[in-house]
Amino acid sequence: RKEVEQDPGPFNVPEGATVAFNCTYSNSASQSFFWYRQDCRKEPKLLMSVYSSGNEDGRFTAQLNRASQYISLLIRDSKLSDSATYLCAAWNSGGYQKVTFGTGTKLQVIP
Amino acid sequence: ETGVTQSPTHLIKTRGQQVTLRCSSQSGHNTVSWYQQALGQGPQFIFQYYREEENGRGNFPPRFSGLQFPNYSSELNVNALELDDSALYLCASSLGNQPQHFGDGTRLSIL
């Protein structure tokens, strides 16, 4: 089993739709979580950190569920420019540090 | 504020050769991590450096080695290159376990 798992998609959604991605992690020692956006042949760019209390940044909402060991990303009112691959990352910062990324979920927003 | 910069942008090597990739961290960042990203996959954690010492490592063989310098810049060295080493190599810097910010990457092709 992979340490961080994501549905690779693609998710094809119309403009204006709401779409949600989940990401599960297996290492209960993971302490910090992030969502990154990666455009084709570009580097990942930090989208947002994920907190247990949930956090929102404009049209984007991230949630962490430690009991079930998953994080989620909700995108409301999808724009064409949201088309990209969304990567979740788990950081185990205790002792010997390690960061694990999922394989990414591809989103295609359709006009 | 200067972002993360990597060099070279592209590199072509042959099997058995050695390569050195370079990374300058974002100003104010003291931690550097290196990742390998194959096509269609998420970034795979190679190792992390803090205060010039490796303090985290993923599942990569010893022929992948690195350095961090007093100015927090870093090098990734790969010996005895194999065809499977062809990938995008990403460097990310952060302040401690704060969110990482990535450079544009070095695209390495092994012939």
By DSSP (H or I, 4+ residues per run), the number of helices of chain A equals 0
Multimerization status: heterodimer
Rough shape of chain B?
A: globular
Structural class of chain A: mainly beta
Give the SSE order of chain A as H and E letters: EEEEEEEEEEE
- Write down how many β-strands of chain B occur, each being a DSSP E stretch of 2 or more residues: 11
Q: Would you count the extended β strands of chain A for me?
A: 11
| Biggest β-sheet strands, sense, barrel of chain B | 7 strands, mixed
Helix content of chain B: under 10%
Which regions of chain B are unreliable across 5 or more consecutive residues at pLDDT < 50? Answer: none
Order of helices and strands of chain B: EEEEEEEEEEE
- Largest protein interface? A-B, 23 and 23 residues
Radius of gyration of chain A: 14 Å
Q: How would you classify the helix and strand content of chain B by structural class?
A: mainly beta
User: Fraction of residues of chain A in helices?
Assistant: under 10%
Portion in strands of chain A: over 45%
Radius of gyration of chain B: 13 Å
Could you explain how this protein is built, in words?
The complex is a heterodimer of chains A (111) and B (111). Chain A is an all-beta fold and 111 residues long. Chain A is 0% helix and 55% strand. Chain A is globular, with a radius of gyration of 14 Å. The mean pLDDT of chain A is 92. The N and C termini of chain B lie far apart (38 Å). At the A-B interface, strand 5 and strand 10 of A face strand 5, strand 6 and strand 10 of B.
